[in-house]
Amino acid sequence: MALVGIVIGSKTDEEYIQPALAVFKEFKIEYDIDILSAHRKPDRVRQYALEADSKGYEVIIAAAGSAAHLPGVIASWTTLPVIGVPLPTSDLKGVDSLYSIVQMPGGVPVACTGIGSAGVKNAALLAVQVLGIKFEQIKRSFAEYKRSLAEA
After folding, report:
1. Could you give the CA distance from residue 92 to residue 37 in angstroms, rounded to a whole number?
2. Predicted confidence band of residue 90 (pLDDT cuts 50, 70, 90)
3. Whole-angstrom Cα distance, residue 128 to residue 29?
4. How far is CA 67 from CA 23, 51, 81, 106, 138, in A?
5. Domain ranges in the chain?
6. pLDDT tens column, 26-73
7. DSSP string covering 65-110, please?
8. CA–CA separation, 97 vs 65, rounded Å?
9. Fold held by 4-151
10. Cα gap 58→103, rounded to integer Å
11. pTM
12. Nearest to 36 by CA among 15, 13, 16
């Protein structure tokens, strides 16, 4: 069963999420990837968010560029933690996405990482930390990962 739901707004965003997939492979965490647009298929995004918990997801990563409404729309329909990742897909190189994701209204929390590949990797690592609250093996694996960073 997948523990993490990854949502991207467009098929062209697949290249950007590769660092997250590498993290989940390293930690042996299953995930699903869906391509959904908050602007082009809002009803499908709503359905995804409403069903995420019953699918077994513990956390959702939503990566989006330009207006980047995807993380906030998902967060408005689910009680699961949502991590938003701004992608550098516009002329503004992701700054517009960052502002869209980080400035959620009160009551609709979305964690927001940095723009681009480092942000994608950090989103995955944050998801690992969230999962470590419930799953002891993931918590131990993350602690080992942190030790290895200190030794490098």
Report:
1. 20
2. confident
3. 8
4. 27, 24, 21, 19, 34
5. 4-151
6. 999 999 999 999 999 999 999 999 999 999 999 999 999 888 899 999
7. -TT--HHHHHHHH-SS-EEEEE---STTTTHHHHHHHH-PPTT---
8. 5
9. Rossmann fold (3.40.50)
10. 23
11. 0.96
12. 13
